[in-house]
Amino acid sequence: MRSPALLLVLASLALGCSSEASSDAPGALDAGTADATSEPAADAGSEADAPYDGPDFSALDPSKCGAAAAEDTRGFDRAYAWPPSASAQQDKSFYVLTLLGAAPASTALAADATLAGYAASRAAAIPSALDGCAGDASCLGAAFVLPDAEIAASRAALSALVASSTAVAAAAHALRASGQAYGRATGSDAELLGAAWEDAVRALGGGWSYVAGLDATARTTIIEAQRQPAAGAPAWAPLLATVLAGLQSDGRDEATRYEPLAAGENAAVLARIATLDFTAYRFAAIVVPGLGPGDLAQALSLGGQIRCDQAAERYRAGLAPVIVLSGGHVHPDRTPYAEALEMKKYLKATYAIADDALLVDPHARHTTTNLRNVARLFLRYGVPTDQASLVTSDFGQTLYMALTGDADVFGKRCLDELGYKPWRAVVKLDTLDDCWLPSATSLQVGAGDLLDP
């Protein structure tokens, strides 16, 4: 993804005088710095045959990231089979609501006096607002979005149901196993469910902006569909349905395009990951953040090609068994091209690197979520996260990602936007490479950005 403008200026100045600067020509390979003779030979997922005779990379030392013990899984189970709803967006952004909306948990919620009371109030407020707000988005939002007092009381009621309802308790246990609320999973199942539910409904409140931003005709059509909420539906159901419909109406399906990745773009590499001995490699993976072009007609930027060239050389040197490409439909807005998929095409066409060596995250929209989304894939696919990975990029982004302190620009941005840092360590190795130790906190969903939760 793009680095901040100031850092890009610094990057261009530094690359102009650096002996390690990449060539301006597409396909040019970085000169690198040291010896790779101790690395394993190319395996079945690589381009293959000739012995490596390129640049030295021995200066790329994963030990600089420090040692990493296995993290507390907090009940996360990567083998957990997710029961889906009818909406992939709902399952990705609001899985706690999917679990609570399915029987028999939904029956227990409908029987709870507190929750049923709020549902009845909402069912009365919505038609009143439709008839009295004259289409005003702010007025309508007041009938759909849950206020603070209702959120607090509903959260307490849901937490209490974990003790009194085996169905709700099972939903809380499933939520823990899914990892979607990892950041909330330090306490009991009751605490987990209540906190995750509140996160979801507050994010839905923010998601009202997608509905408010639609033209009046589309907005009215979507909201009218909720004039009579289904019998037994919880108080948040009309808001959930409206926000999901608003995203769909506006064509904002970026979060779920290409899903399920494990059965599609990542099927080949996922099968191979299960056979790999990662300890035979210096790094678990080579990660390439995308760099989008500046216009809708261009599929892959020159900078993106250069990052791929760097990754191909490091892969050919045997530094890691897998290249990970991260970047969604970002630059410019609503581009038809996903950075990760265009980089994958480029590496296959230019270097004949096989599908089973190329793992993609076609959803990330920022540098923060490049790391977060890739960490999620590692945790779900079985790529070791207690072994450092190599992130190869340009001078500006490499420097930016290494500014990890709470008050540093990248560290602070992650805390502000994600609520956590998706790493245990990020250390600058040279002008183009960082080593990175992912963190399991990355599993925590952040539905504040519904285009990449």
Descriptive overview:
The chain is globular and about 75 Å long. It folds into 2 domains: 5-65 and 256-443, no CATH class; 88-249, no CATH class. A 6-stranded mixed sheet has the order 3-2-1-4-6-5, sandwiched between helices. It has helices spanning 5-17, 88-93, 95-101, 105-111, 113-132, 137-144, 148-164, 166-178, 189-212, 216-224, 237-249, 267-273, 302-316, 339-351, 367-381, 395-401, 409-417; strands spanning 286-289, 323-326, 358-361, 389-392, 423-428, 433-438. It is an alpha/beta fold and 453 residues long. Residues 2-38 and 44-48 have low confidence and may be disordered. The chain has 17 helices and 6 strands. α3 packs antiparallel against α8, α4 packs across α8 (166-178) and α5 (113-132) runs antiparallel to α6. Helix content is 45%, strand content 6%.
